[in-house]
Amino acid sequence: MDKLLITGGSRLSGDITISGAKNAALPILCAGLLTADTVQLSNVPHLQDVSTMTKLLRQMGLRIEQDGERMSLNGAAIDKCEAPYELVKTMRAAILVLGPLVARFGEAKVSLPGGCAIGSRPVDQHIKGLQAMGAEITIEAGYIHAKAKRLKGTRIVTDMITVTGTENLLMAAALAEGETVLENAAREPEVTDLANLLVAMGANISGIGTDRLVVQGVDKLHGASHTVIADRIETGTFLCAVAAAGGDVTLKNTRSDFLDVALDKLREAGAILTSGADWIRVQMAARPKAVSFRTTEYPGFPTDMQAQFMAMNCIADGSSHVTETIFENRFMHVQELNRLGASIDIDGHTAIVRGVEKLVGAPVMATDLRASASLVIAALAAQGETLIDRIYHLDRGYDRMEAKLSAVGANIQRIK
């Protein structure tokens, strides 16, 4: 298994180009199942999760051609409406094939997602929504079996805000008969990106970007071209890295409007931020100031940035409270950060972080995708060498992170 060896203490300076968003690319790839025509995508990130999703979709008969960050999808020859456990267990987003398959082919057999280290993330809202649209659903031997002659539009109020639930039901509603209203819909930019692609494919959706999506079903969708939005979590991760290690870095091919809350917290920590239409510059010359926050649904503070900000808080001046409200098991990075000399205590859903003057390198282990990013940030700010094991978690959601950091002066290398 690959590891990362990082020698901390280098200031970061230069440019980093941000990749397309993982959490937009995955549902967008599934939207290729909704039409027999060709969907042309650009800015698709090179990630393990994207490879897993394309492998799954190819097994179903979706034709996929790839050239760098461009991809063309053609759904004319789909012949298998099944997502097997082997692929779903490594990536929960595979549940996103359920809505499109039932909507276009009238049936689907999708494995229940395997465990994800950061919490249970149930799919009951997906199932309840499809049942409300007339699908017959049974669960046998770990698989969701769904059938419907044609889905019927209806009003769906989810019990909680669910990003993948909103995306699944939105794709299903695009081909349903009549009007579907999704109340309490997720407002994340990645949901909006999917909705914009569906509209380009001929879907009739209003309320995009709000918590109430109204979809007038159409008989069929056609091909379209679409550019995946920039990854706001990758953007935020590199901003935190500069805030923790110090330096002057410009992030390109990204935007600032989908990260407002995190940017405000970085300014509070002492970072100087300037931005344009497609770039953000971060300058950090002093030790960061501690910042407290609580995670919540968009447009609040993203749970996917919690670990990275906590890493910055470890070496900040002062104490901070970090409260996690989205996932019940998302503090697994705390014991690893403490191995580097951090002072963090957990009290229920809140971590109390007392900033220390310095971290010292040590061997640590990544436990999930964003936790591994927090360990990279802490290692960049630490004295001496840190060896991070199990970085396959990192590769699921970051495109060659070590190459991007090396290019701005980090002392980081991948060890086979």
Automatic annotation (TrEMBL):
InterPro entries: Enolpyruvate_Tfrase_dom, Enolpyruvate_Tfrase_sf, MurA_subfamily, RNA3'P_cycl/enolpyr_Trfase_a/b, UDP_GlcNAc_COvinyl_MurA. Coiled coil: none annotated. Its main location: cytoplasm. One of its GO terms (biological process) is peptidoglycan biosynthetic process. One of its GO terms (cellular component) is cytoplasm. Residues 7-405 form the Enolpyruvate transferase domain. Keywords: Cell cycle, Cell division, Cell shape, Cell wall biogenesis/degradation, Cytoplasm, Peptidoglycan synthesis, Pyruvate, Transferase. Pfam families: EPSP_synthase. The lineage of its organism: Bacteria, Pseudomonadati, Pseudomonadota, Betaproteobacteria, Burkholderiales. It is an enzyme of class 2 (transferase). It comes from Noviherbaspirillum autotrophicum. This is UDP-N-acetylglucosamine 1-carboxyvinyltransferase. Phosphoenolpyruvate binds at residues 22-23. Belongs to the EPSP synthase family. MurA subfamily. The modification 2-(S-cysteinyl)pyruvic acid O-phosphothioketal is found at residue 116. The keyword Transport does not apply. It is found in: Cytoplasm. One of its GO terms (molecular function) is UDP-N-acetylglucosamine 1-carboxyvinyltransferase activity.
